[in-house]
């Protein structure tokens, strides 16, 4: 570990941003040409347009189109430095952040800190489900799911066992929020449109797709009317919607769920299972909340002041999925507006000497919510206005193009969406065995290393905050 914390030369106000998602990236871009130094820390080298991950998983877009490199995005901002590494410690009193890349530490001293580390998948205490039902929170997740989906069809093509073929062609999506609805819709289109006539021994139109949720409707935040419209469209596509049902077990063979009204349990044999039922804020939130004497909520989100700061630490901002304030939803707009607000507040203090007491409170402008159900069909809720069908689909396309980073990515995505609307082909269905097996292989390797008290570079580079880095390192 470095003994002397680093800060940029020049003596300017130093801002450290943890996370290069929507909140962190929009904060960093707001500092352009300002008299501050910025260091942005992220465990990956890319900014992820997370709402479009399901399109990578189902072969519409490539990962590069939704995950441009952070350094390229910020290349023209001379006052911004990028550090790739997993944050291992935040010391609020010492005003330092320690980031690790494969066992090599960087200790950064800050004057202001913006925490935008986002959220991960929540299995509601059943973490063992993750082995068989990956979530949809990273590029790795999307590529693994793509490999599982395409692998199911390939295995079904060669099996001679009718029961096994039925299991392989049964897909279960857990969670009927926007991600689950979008994924189920695209799975139906893949099966009934894209892959039609591509196999010789199976009929992909016989695929069974289940969307399971513990609530009483799909897309609950959108209201009953839009929820019903989305459900009807999914059912038209052949999706089976199972509501008021909690998943009680996920294993290699399938999924078991319990009807909360009748108590009846059902087991559905399935090869490919996908989890989109809940989120949990980064554990970094609890880490800093404990230092500030603040208690996080059940999802690990940190209650913040009106200026998005943490307790008495008026130089520490919590934004996006990590924060809890006024029941704001965990959507990109909240993160973007929070990042811009935090950056503007820091600029006012660093350049104009504005005191924390003079800060205007954060005010969120709700631009609405959107979810695409299928080709030519989406639902949009903007305050009291509700739009669905083709018009909603066009609105969804325009808004998502607007918030994609980079002209090339917008152009390629627009072309891909246009091509997909007129052709049943998808050109991003490449899958590899490494994509399919890497996550669980690393998990097994970690379990073996835990017993030996060692850490290989492969495991160390994939450990998240709080996941047992402190064992003997072996050669890189």
UniProtKB/TrEMBL annotation:
GO terms for molecular function: NADH dehydrogenase (quinone) (non-electrogenic) activity. InterPro entries: FAD/NAD-bd_sf, FAD/NAD-binding_dom, NDH-2. Its EC number is 1.6.5.9. It is an enzyme of class 1 (oxidoreductase). Keywords: FAD, Flavoprotein, Membrane, NAD, Oxidoreductase, Transmembrane, Transmembrane helix. It catalyses: a quinone + NADH + H(+) = a quinol + NAD(+). The keyword Repressor does not apply. The chain crosses the membrane at residues 390-407. Residues 14-339 form the FAD/NAD(P)-binding domain. Pfam families: Pyr_redox_2. Belongs to the NADH dehydrogenase family. PANTHER family: EXTERNAL NADH-UBIQUINONE OXIDOREDUCTASE 1, MITOCHONDRIAL-RELATED, NADH DEHYDROGENASE. This is NADH:ubiquinone reductase (non-electrogenic).
